[in-house]
Specification:
binds zinc ion, about 120 residues, single chain
């Protein structure tokens, strides 16, 4: 069933979402940018307060902050395979380690098994 007409998928995939997903909007971008800006600001404040004396606490805070931001990202976004159109979610670890190209991520599709630059989509809440 999934092996159908590939060009069809490519033609439709921008509008062709399953119920729980939607296209990324500019408000998603605003949310992400806001989060990254406050993250950078927190890093600066934490660095100012803790470095160099309490570097271990600093390292812990940075690791925790990074983990929180990535799990937020993992919870709110999924990826769509450009090859077969399958939408799938990834783990926090994959999100952290996978090569990232802004709105795309190099992932292996669980449906067709191809590695490609999957396109990010937002989860409906
Ligand atoms: Zn696929």
């Amino acid at each position: 069933m999934h092996k159908g007409n590939e060009s069809d998928h490519k033609l439709n995939y921008n509008g062709n979402y399953k119920g729980n997903y939607r296209k990324i909007t500019s408000s998603d971008w605003r949310g992400t940018i806001l989060l990254l800006v406050s993250y950078s600001a927190s890093i600066m404040i934490v660095s100012f307060l803790l470095l160099p004396d309490k570097w271990y606490l600093w390292a812990f805070m940075i690791a925790l902050g990074t983990f929180l931001i990535i799990s937020w990202h993992t919870k709110n976004f999924a990826y769509q395979c450009p090859n077969c159109g399958e939408i799938f979610e990834i783990s926090v670890v994959t999100d952290f380690l996978g090569p990232n190209g802004g709105t795309k991520k190099y992932l292996k599709c669980p449906n067709c098994g191809k590695r490609s630059w999957a396109v990010i989509v937002a989860k409906r809440k």
